[in-house]
């Protein structure tokens, strides 16, 4: 520290006026950069510095005793140990962390009033008081040493902004503590471990990456070859978009891919009246319609991010909005999940039971130093039951006299065989001919299904969906940053991530994957169970996905998964999506009547209002299968203005559970009075914090040339 500072410990030794407390303060400043002028110490400057370092805060708008008094009158820091003493004269009001905006657990009163003695004085009352201070300091050190959590040492926790004395789980309304990671955001464990951990990350997300084509392609009357091609396309896009996000997005270790957010609107378009009666080229026509809508929605998302509008919108997006919205994404498929899986209960029930056993009962079992059952629950369960289904098929469990599984159900003339056609199609492992028809090498290319079709009605649907996808990603960004022990990103970084997601969805629309691309919510679960948050691992794994997408036979193998098996796994994944969405409420006061009412009303009406639109015209039940009925309201809903394009769009939007839930939660959370602490308002870092923090710059900054091109708005 410069000698001009009035608190230099060397200066303090020159005169008799310097007390013990001043020398301690100087020692402390050796380690902490002060927010003080060099001369003419102003107590207000000290107070501002104390607030920024987390010692004192009046964030809630209430000024406690310790923040109202001047330094030297009512407080003194125990400086050699970098901690403040607990005393009797301070306020008992809740102390709010200035960085997180969350209440810190009470450790007693704020700061003790101690009058320092002259440095040259002999043993006396002052010396006894200093002895008392040393005893209290030892007790304070012992208390804090017991509260180190498993995520790291106290200093690291304080730097990350979420250290909790007392250990254990975070209490209601507090931020959760970081987990103990094997490898952090910028760690490089070596090339071979990077390959292993990279593939591990994607294998744990296999259900989300692979099973969406098994839902939408059969609904579009696509062939098994088409299913294999769409799977390969999704693998390619997942690899490309994940690499882009790791370098140019938020730079958090998050996999980008086809999201369930886009699945429900895709099914709405697929089951619209216009496409129900198509016989020729139905798959290509619907895919081109989806491509055009996704491209328009992605452009809206790009504008939202790059223009900075997302930074303004972030002020209104908080856990009470994110939680029910993400939960509604999973709940939207409750009428599709088990009705599809139930066609083969001898397959579906064992899959669900095995998933529950692996993820819950065997989650603590370690083999070869790895918790394989917890990490690979989905691929292990699917592989075991797929093998079991193969033996059922070979053993003749699905053989019916005079019936052939290769004959389409529409061409079956024997009534007895018609009864079993559905079972054979959904249960047999040899029902797909993808292996015979798919080439060994196939490179997905842009506009492979033809040039996209653009219509206002479907474009409006995807604009609303892209907004919901952005809200979903906001919650994932915040949770992921806390999970990997990084500081929260700035609003500009979040906007940058949303803008890049829009660009990734644009690529998905150009290549024709059937759904947009966004950050997978399941990333949070994957990082939590693998304890690996290395960007390099994700990039290496993404490169492998790109290479594997060129192997046509791999897509054919995945396309051969029985539909009942896929639906059973999706039941578990959708349930996990609901749980991950509701877990955002841990940042709020979950016991608050305000919060539980908003979440409850949003979820209930978010399911009930779309049900009204879905059941408005009973004739749909005679045309569509029961599991597609919730997605057939666009052509026959109650919203009728005479403008066909607008009627279609509004009936479709209001039949989507996640859109209705989001709109209700958004309005209620931002109009019903409630404190920031009660609402669990997201606290993002400031651009100024990033400029002064090299660690944060290393975590989030773009490559230098790219940063210069985009400018500071998208970089910080």
TrEMBL record:
InterPro entries: NCS2. Residues 60-69 have a biased composition (Polar residues). Residues 38-48, 125-140, 150-159 have a biased composition (Basic and acidic residues). Keywords: Membrane, Transmembrane, Transmembrane helix. The keyword Repeat does not apply. It is found in: Membrane. The keyword Coiled coil does not apply. GO terms for cellular component: membrane. The chain crosses the membrane at residues 194-216, 228-248, 293-314, 320-339, 351-369, 375-398, 537-558, 564-583, 595-613, 648-668. Belongs to the nucleobase:cation symporter-2 (NCS2) (TC 2.A.40) family. This is Nucleobase-ascorbate transporter 11. It comes from Eutrema salsugineum. The lineage of its organism: Eukaryota, Viridiplantae, Streptophyta, Embryophyta, Tracheophyta.
């Amino acid at each position: 520290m410069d000698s001009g500072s009035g608190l230099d410990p060397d200066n303090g030794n020159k005169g008799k006026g310097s007390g013990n407390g001043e020398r301690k303060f100087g020692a402390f400043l050796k380690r902490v950069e002060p927010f003080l002028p060099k001369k003419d110490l102003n107590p207000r400057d000290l107070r501002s510095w104390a607030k920024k370092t987390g010692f004192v805060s009046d964030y809630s708008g209430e000024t406690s005793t310790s923040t109202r008094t001047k330094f030297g009158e009512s407080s003194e820091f125990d400086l050699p140990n970098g901690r403040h003493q607990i005393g009797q004269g301070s306020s008992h009001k809740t102390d709010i962390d200035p960085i997180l905006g969350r209440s810190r657990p009470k450790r007693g009163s704020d700061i003790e009033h101690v009058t320092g003695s002259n440095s040259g004085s002999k043993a006396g009352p002052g010396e006894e008081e200093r002895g008392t201070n040393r005893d209290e300091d030892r007790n304070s050190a012992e208390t804090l040493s017991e509260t180190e959590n498993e995520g790291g040492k106290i200093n690291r926790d304080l730097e990350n902004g979420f250290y909790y004395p007392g250990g254990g789980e975070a209490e209601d309304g507090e931020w959760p503590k970081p987990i103990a990671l094997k490898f952090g955001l910028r760690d490089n464990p070596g090339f071979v471990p990077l390959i292993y951990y990279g593939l591990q990350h994607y294998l744990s997300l296999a259900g989300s990456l692979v099973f969406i084509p098994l839902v939408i392609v059969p609904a579009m009357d696509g062939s098994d070859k088409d299913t294999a091609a769409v799977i390969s396309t999704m693998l390619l896009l997942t690899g490309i978009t994940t690499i882009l996000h790791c370098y140019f997005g938020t730079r958090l270790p998050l996999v980008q891919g086809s999201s369930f957010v886009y699945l429900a609107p895709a099914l709405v378009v697929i089951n619209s009246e216009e496409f129900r009666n198509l016989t020729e080229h139905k798959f290509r026509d619907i895919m081109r319609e989806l491509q055009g809508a996704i491209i328009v929605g992605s452009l809206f998302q790009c504008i939202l991010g790059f223009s900075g509008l997302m930074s303004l919108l972030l002020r209104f997006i908080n856990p009470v909005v994110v939680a029910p919205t993400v939960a509604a994404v999973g709940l939207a498929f409750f009428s599709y999940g088990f009705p599809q899986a139930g066609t083969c209960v001898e397959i579906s029930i064992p899959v669900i039971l095995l998933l529950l056993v692996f993820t819950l009962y065997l989650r603590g079992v370690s083999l070869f130093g790895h918790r394989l059952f917890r990490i690979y629950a989905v691929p292990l369960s699917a592989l075991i039951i797929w093998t079991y289904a193969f033996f059922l098929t070979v053993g003749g469990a699905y053989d019916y006299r005079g019936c052939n599984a290769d004959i389409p159900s529409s061409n079956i003339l024997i009534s007895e065989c018609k009864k079993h056609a559905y079972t054979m199609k959904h249960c047999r492992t040899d029902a797909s001919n993808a292996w015979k028809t798919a080439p060994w090498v196939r490179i997905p290319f842009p506009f492979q299904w033809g040039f996209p079709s653009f219509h206002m009605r479907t474009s409006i649907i995807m604009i609303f969906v892209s907004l919901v996808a952005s809200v979903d990603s906001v919650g994932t960004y915040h949770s992921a940053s806390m999970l990997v022990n990084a500081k929260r990103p700035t609003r500009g970084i979040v906007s940058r991530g949303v803008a890049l997601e829009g660009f990734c969805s644009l690529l998905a629309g150009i290549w024709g994957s059937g759904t947009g691309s966004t950050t997978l919510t399941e990333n949070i679960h994957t990082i939590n169970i693998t304890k690996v948050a290395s960007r390099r691992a994700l990039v290496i794994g993404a490169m492998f996905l790109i290479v594997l997408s060129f192997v046509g036979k791999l897509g054919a193998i995945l396309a051969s998964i029985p539909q009942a098996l896929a639906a059973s796994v999706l039941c578990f994944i959708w349930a996990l999506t609901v749980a991950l969405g509701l877990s955002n409420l841990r940042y709020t006061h979950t016991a608050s009547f305000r919060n539980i009412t908003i979440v409850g009303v949003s979820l209930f009406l978010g399911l009930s209002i779309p049900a009204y639109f879905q059941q408005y015209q009973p004739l749909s039940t005679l045309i569509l299968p029961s599991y597609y009925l919730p997605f057939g309201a666009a052509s026959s809903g109650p919203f009728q203005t005479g403008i066909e394009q607008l009627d279609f769009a509004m009936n479709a939007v209001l039949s989507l559970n996640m859109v209705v839930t989001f709109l209700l939660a958004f309005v209620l959370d931002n109009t019903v009075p409630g404190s920031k602490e009660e609402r669990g308002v997201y606290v993002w870092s400031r651009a100024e914090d990033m400029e002064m923090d090299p660690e944060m710059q290393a975590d989030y900054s773009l490559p230098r040339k790219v940063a210069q091109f985009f400018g500071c708005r998208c970089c910080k």
